[in-house]
Write a structure and sequence with these properties.
By secondary structure, the chain is an alpha+beta fold. The chain is built from five helices and six strands; from the N terminus they run H-E-H-E-H-E-H-E-E-H-E. About 10% of the residues have low confidence.
Length: about 190
């Protein structure tokens, strides 16, 4: 059986009943693909192979069944107009945060900052001296970072309760930048 790609949409059922593996295309329209659209002159998006349509229909069916099961289990309604998004961060693990008073081993919660556009040749000791002169009682860590340009950059860790104090612009030299440090996801907590 030959398939004419210019067929009207009312003949769509005849094409779906055809079990051949031919390259027949069917006009789906905006109702089946609400996110598609664009220039009216371009008709290439209107034609989809039977296999692609069956795959799309099976995905819709599976998602609809999952949403119906979720609605039965919970009192709140799940939105049915969008697909559930995958968790990009992987599974969340339960983290235990200690609250005991042991002085033997105790972690320090730190806020990490990136100090950038520092004059070439500046050392960790120079940055440490600047912070000590402005905040004599503050506990901090300074690490020099490998920079790609002419300027130097540093990673500064301060006590989390003092993070607002270190963000005062009057403390830092002119044209030096200070912002929150973003850790790469591939780093382990030990490297932080």
């Amino acid at each position: 059986r030959n398939c004419n790609p210019d067929r009207e949409t009312n003949q769509e059922s005849e094409v779906m009943e055809d079990n051949n593996t031919s390259d027949c295309s069917v006009f789906l329209g905006f109702d089946d693909f609400p996110t598609l659209g664009g220039a009216e002159d371009d008709d290439s998006w209107k034609r989809v192979s039977k296999a692609a349509k069956k795959n799309y229909a099976s995905i819709l069916k599976v998602n609809k069944e999952n949403i119906q099961e979720a609605n039965k289990d919970s009192k709140t309604k799940v939105k049915t107009d969008k697909y559930p998004r995958p968790n990009r961060n992987g599974t969340r693990r339960n983290v235990l945060i200690g609250t005991g008073d042991s002085k033997l081993i105790q972690g320090v919660k730190r806020a990490w900052f990136h100090l950038g556009k520092v004059k070439n040749g500046t050392t960790e000791e120079g940055v440490s001296g600047l912070i000590k002169s402005n905040f004599p009682d503050m506990d901090f860590v300074v690490e020099k970072l490998e920079s790609k340009g002419w300027n130097e950059s540093f990673k500064i860790g301060v006590d989390f309760t003092k993070k607002d104090e270190i963000l005062q612009s009057s403390m830092w030299p002119k044209n030096v930048t200070l912002k929150r440090f973003l850790f790469l996801r591939r780093e382990t907590p030990i490297q932080r």
